[in-house]
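Worked problem 6 (solution included).
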Amino acid sequence: MEPKLLVGTSKGLVTFDNTRQRWTATAVHFPGLSISVAYVDHRTNTWWVGISHRHWGEKLYYSKSEGKSWDEVQTPGYANFFYRPGKPASLKKIWTLQHAGHDRPGGLWMGTEPGGLFYSDDYGKSFHLIESLWNHDSRMDSNQWFGAGKDYPFIHSIVLDPRDSNHVYVGVSCAGVFETRDGGGSWRAKNEGLIAAYLPNPKAEVGHDPHRLLLCPAQPDIIWQQNHCGIFRTTNGGELWEDVSGNEGFPKYGFALAIDDMDPQTAWVIPARSDEQRIPVDLKLTVCKTTDSGKNWVSVSLGLPDLTTFDLVLRHSFVKRKSTLAFGTNNGNLYLSDDGGNSWRVISHNLAMVNYLAFT
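Solution. The predicted structure is:
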């Protein structure tokens, strides 16, 4: 069966079907509502959708029928938990979901704003806050977790080691990368080698701003991140990160990242200019690719418009499945490549802001 592409926009979830290499929109779910998460659990082909409702807050739904019907589950709360002393915590946004491994069929991780990690062992019927991370000294005692473009820190990336379901990494903006090897019982910061140029101490243990974190399934000790301060890569499971940004700072800043599942040296990024501006570098929509672990980067932008553009690609709006890559922009444009990113074609110019992409 050909895969579908789920496109979570600020005005609903749009599904695209692939028929004879022609991708067409076939359905719109939750029209008019802003999609914060679109996640496919490939263990069961269950679709999960998070919604940021203007009036009712965060909602969470799943479908076991590829969108033919949806069931709502109760979103987790922060009852009796405090963001800071005297400041009660509350759920602001669901940022990401990740299954907990094939040996935990009911396990599901959830990353949220304001920086809380939740876990469900009954497949979303109930969630509990991982207090060991919430109460980590770097967050509670020394206030090293903070918001950047947001008012609060948020967990946007959850990375599972395919060899060991107890081994999980999370990416926190702004705090950095944290690792557990005991299923969430304890956590260690894994930020050695990262740079936080905006801090008084750029090499601080905590306070970094990863924008996206991805692990190579074929070689799980190799992890990439698109960071506020560059593109970084580790070959030893986060013990030490290396700056692999391009020469003369291009590519460097951006949000989106894709990596190859089998080749740990290959990755793609979509550069942007500065946190203040958040526009394409030189106002040109560009995809950059490396096949040598970031030593060299080349533009692979054939088919993308050679026009002035203000398109920005957000952190969850760039995905890869086998040789197919797709990305969506804040201006509602959707592009796809069937040849590993060597050439691109437009799928739609008529979407709302693209927040999230997922292949089934």
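Discussion: Residues 76-243 form a domain with the Methylamine Dehydrogenase; Chain H fold (CATH 2.130.10.10).
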